[in-house]
Every structure is written in structure tokens, then in C-alpha cells.
Fold:
Amino acid sequence: MLIKRRRGWELPESAATPEATYLNRRDLLKAAGLGAIAVAGGAIGAPGAFAQGPEVDPTASLYPFKQNMRYRLDRPLTPEKDATTYNNFYEFGTHKGIAPAAQALKLRPWTVRFEGMVETPMTVGFDELVKQMPMEERLYRFRCVEAWSMAVPWSGFPMKAMIEFARPLSSAKYVVMQTFMDPKVAPGQRQSWYPWPYTDGLTIEEATNELAFMATGIYGKPLPKQNGAPLRFVTPWKYGFKQVKSIVRVEFTDKRPVGYWEKLQSSEYGFWANVNPQVSHPRWSQATERVLGSDERVPTQLFNGYADFVAGLYKGLEKERLYA
Ligand SMILES: Nc1nc2c(c(=O)[nH]1)N[C@H]1C(S)=C(S)[C@@H](COP(=O)(O)O)O[C@H]1N2
Ligand SMILES: [Mo]
Structure:
């Protein structure tokens, strides 16, 4: 039996303790013992930790990028300290305060492998990829299946641009993204009952929808490690668990992929996972959401408010389990 004890993700978010919500970023860095500079490696036994000096990010000077005004918000932006201190990143722990632990992730060198049903498999350095992509900033709403939400400015590029770059075969139907695998750095990955590495995927049609976005930054700066640096998927009309962090591999396939959460608990987490306030999670309602950084609850919207952009993707698929 895979799941015996009750885990964080089985609880409605309202029952979880947001222990780190009120720490600011500087406190977190201090707590992680990093002081004013970010250091390569970390305290968790990464080879060469602290020996290599500060990590230099050659993309940092490119920020901020110009905002694409097509994507507007109906609510205030979430304060940066909330979005960067209240996280889900099970590789570093099952609670929300994983930001200090995530600082152990080493971001350079970082490569992304494109493979599976592509014309030519290739491995590309993250910094080289950024140079070739049409970078911009977008304000998006974000909805976690645990019924909390935020509104954040992502920096990055449309996923469609990355797919064109990868040149999948016309027979490819799905794209799957995979997180790094390094149990030395990520203590959660030493827990063998989880289906590591974290993966999730979507149809090529969804992935080439204009909303699907590859984030490299947030709040006008490169992504903090806890938010999925250096490259993370963003799909604002789907629940947050589809939004794979710290991507090292992008695979094209003609078989519907089974992601991390679906592997863990397929009765609760499916392939499509589109936001719908009328379709409850088996153990809690999805009708409303708590806005991160406040106690306010607001109504959840169909496709998280993005129906005009994406509803057409699901015509003819009404028999599928589209919303969980
Ligand atoms: N690799 C990886 N990606 C992940 C997760 C995770 O645990 N591991 N959690 C997912 C979930 S459930 C959510 S809600 C978002 C949280 O993103 P944030 O911490 O930037 O808000 O990341 C998603 N991507
Ligand atoms: Mo989530």
C-alpha cells in the first residue's frame, strides 16, 4: 500500500500551518546561513559545497523584461515575500517553509534535455536557451489544488517558442517535463515511496496555447530556488501541481503521461487538472480560494478565469475527467 499516513497534500490548505508566511526573504537567507550572498551548493552534503564561491547568474542583468499587457489581473499582486516563502516543493520537504532548504540547489551549470519524439534530441544550457527565447513579463493568477491562490508577475517565454525550438515530430501528442533528480541536495528525494523524479505533462495543443508559459523569473528577477529555478512551467488555468519546477528534461511522446500526483493518488489528481469551482476535490470544496498573504476568500473561477483563452481546447472531450 503506497499511502498509509496522512500527508500535507491530503489536507485542505486551510488545515496546514503556513509557518514561513511572515518571514521575509532576508530572514530566510539568514536562517539558511547564507547571509548576503548566495553560495553554490549547500549544507546538505553537495560535493564542493562552499568551495566554488558565489553562483554567478549571467541572465540576471537582463531583468526586468517588458510586460505583455494582454494578460491582466482582476486583483492586486501577491506580496513578493508571500509568493517566495509559502511554497510547495516536495523535493525539499512537505511543508510550506522549504525556501531555506531549497537554497542547496545548485543552478549552474544547468542543462535542459529535449528528447523522445523530436527530429534531433539535444541538450541545451539554460543560459543559452534564455538568449534564444522571446523574453517577456506576464501577470497571471495562480490556483493550487489545496485552495490557496496568488497573483504574480512571471518572467519567461511562451512555451510555444520552446516547442518550436525543440522541433517535435508531428506524431508527438504530449509534452512531459521533469524536475532534477539529486537526493544529495533534495532530502525529500530520499523518501523512496514518492515517485521521483517529479514529472507532469499536457497535450501539445495545450502546450502551444498562448497562455502556457516557461518561467525563468518572478517579480522582475530570476526565479528564487524555492519557486523552481532556473526554469519552471506555468499554466494558469490548471491547478498548481501541473506546474513542474526546476526542469531538466522535456520529452515528447504519443502516450498520455501519468504525472507525479496522478501516480501517488489517481483518484484525486488526474491528467487534465483544469480549475473548476463546481468540481470538488474528494475531500474539500474548490468553490473558493484563500488569497495568499491575506485571510480573504474569493470565489474560484472556471479555468481560473481564463476560459476565453482555453475553453476551446476541451471541445469534444466532455467525457474526460477534465477538472481534477
Ligand atoms: N518539482 C516540483 N514541482 C512542483 C511541486 C513539487 O512539489 N515539486 N509542487 C507543485 C505544486 S502542488 C504547486 S502549488 C506549485 C507551487 O509553486 P510555488 O511554490 O512557486 O507557489 O509548484 C508545483 N510544482
Ligand atoms: Mo499545489
